[in-house]
Write a structure and sequence with these properties.
Radius of gyration of chain A: 25 Å
Oligomer: heterodimer
Largest sheet of chain A: none
Number of helices of chain A: 7
Number of strands of chain B: 12
Largest sheet of chain B: 5 strands, antiparallel
Radius of gyration of chain B: 20 Å
Shape of chain B: elongated
Number of strands of chain A: 0
Distance between the termini of chain A: 17 Å
Chain lengths: 222, 170
């Protein structure tokens, strides 16, 4: 194997590890995303309780009685801001990952490549890949659920408007199912990308395991 | 791990908030929508479970007079108020909570329909005598009647009645 080929293979390998680092950060940011979205739901519910209490005890009719069972607009706004904040947090965490820090070492040629391989913590890398895989799938699911919630609220408001203008009313099942189907249709590309990436992470894991065992054996022989 | 605990706390908070939200009720009268045309003699019966707090906003609008007819409000203590034609007469009835009241119950009779799922009620009755007879014969100190609060008033004459009621049963 020439130095050039080795350098090319190592670049490919380290880029894949950088990707894993990013996905690992995504997995840990998923918890933040979920916390932010659930916190915005808690905030919305608290706001709804306060509005209802003011209504019952002081007679401030903030809510039209006809709409108390449906979805008030401020709920949509609170959740929308919550989801946006969650996505921003995830993006910020992912962007904070330092990439291509290995470039300088790899430029040293074969000694640099060997140094990088020796410094690689294989068990940690395997664990990171597994964690990244889980986080990647869960983040996709949580994101779809958050979008579903938003779409549900949006449809609640839309059905109120349609009801007022055309005197039509949607049943609760349609109000729940239509937004879900819409979100799934709009997320198909993202879901397919996630499915492919999980497959790639799987094969990366197996390839690295093989490489690790070969590397150890070579080390032993030397 | 800290994040998981935080998430669990938030989920418990949301679940509790949803439970609290389920205790809010709006007036959903059996016989009337929130805006109703009352004629001749109409009895408005407002009732609630003792643990609920109820606030009812009532607006009475007599029609523009085409004859000598008058609209009069008669309260249980005998007070009578004559409402001038086309005037928007508004008042609130507040029946406060009497505290915790464990155990489930339900009462369904003329003018009253109270249960755990439906702790506040407003009904309009065109025949006031049946309810007034019932009201005077019931022993309000004995359960289950001791576990509800009832207030009523009579509207004599024609009028448009708007009722908006909100309650919380905690």
């Amino acid at each position: 194997m020439t130095e050039e080929t080795l350098s090319g293979k190592m670049t490919e390998f380290m880029t894949a590890l950088d990707q894993v680092k990013k996905y690992r950060e995504l997995a840990s940011a998923m918890a933040d995303f979920t916390i932010i979205v659930v916190a915005s739901v808690a905030f919305f519910a608290a706001l709804h309780i306060i509005v209802n209490l003011l209504d019952v005890f002081y007679g401030y009719s903030f809510i039209d009685p006809g709409y108390t069972g449906v979805l008030p607009f401020y709920g949509f706004v609170v959740l929308f801001i919550g989801v946006l904040m969650g996505i921003y947090r995830v993006q910020r965490k992912m962007n904070s990952v330092r990439l291509e820090q290995w470039e300088g070492t790899l430029n040293e040629g074969t000694p640099g490549a060997l140094k990088l391989l020796q410094e690689t913590q294989w068990e940690k890398t395997f664990s990171d890949i597994r964690f990244a895989k889980l986080g990647f799938v869960l983040y996709g699911a949580v994101k779809v659920m958050a979008y579903w919630m938003l779409a549900f609220f949006f449809f609640g408001i839309l059905s109120g408007v349609i009801g007022n203008i055309f005197h039509l009313s949607f049943d609760p099942i349609s109000l729940t199912v239509i937004p879900l189907v819409l979100v799934l249709v709009l997320s198909v590309k993202d879901l397919r990308y996630r499915y492919d990436q999980v497959g790639r992470l799987d094969s990366l894991l197996w390839e690295l395991r093989w490489f690790d065992s070969e590397f150890r054996r070579a080390d032993f022989k030397a | 791990m800290k994040k998981l605990w935080l998430l669990l706390t938030l989920v418990v908070i949301v679940a509790s908030e949803v439970a609290v939200l389920s205790s809010f009720h709006i007036v959903n009268t059996n016989n009337v929508s929130t805006s109703t045309w009352a004629s001749d003699s109409t009895l408005v019966v407002i009732s609630k479970a003792d643990y609920a707090h109820l606030r009812v906003e009532i607006e009475i609008v007599p029609p523009v007079p085409i004859d000598q007819s008058q609209t009069t409000l008669i309260f249980p203590n005998g007070t009578q108020i004559e409402i001038p034609a086309a005037e928007h007469y508004t008042f609130s009835v507040i029946l406060p909570s009497r505290g915790l009241s464990p155990g489930s119950f339900g009462i369904q009779c003329e003018g009253i329909d109270i249960s755990d799922n439906h702790p506040i009620d407003v009904e309009l009755l065109s025949n006031s005598t049946v309810f007034q007879n019932l009201y005077s014969t019931i022993d309000w100190a004995v359960p289950p009647y001791s576990r509800i609060s009832v207030y009523w008033f009579l509207i004599q004459g024609n009028a448009l009645i708007n009722i908006q009621g909100h309650g919380v049963g905690l």
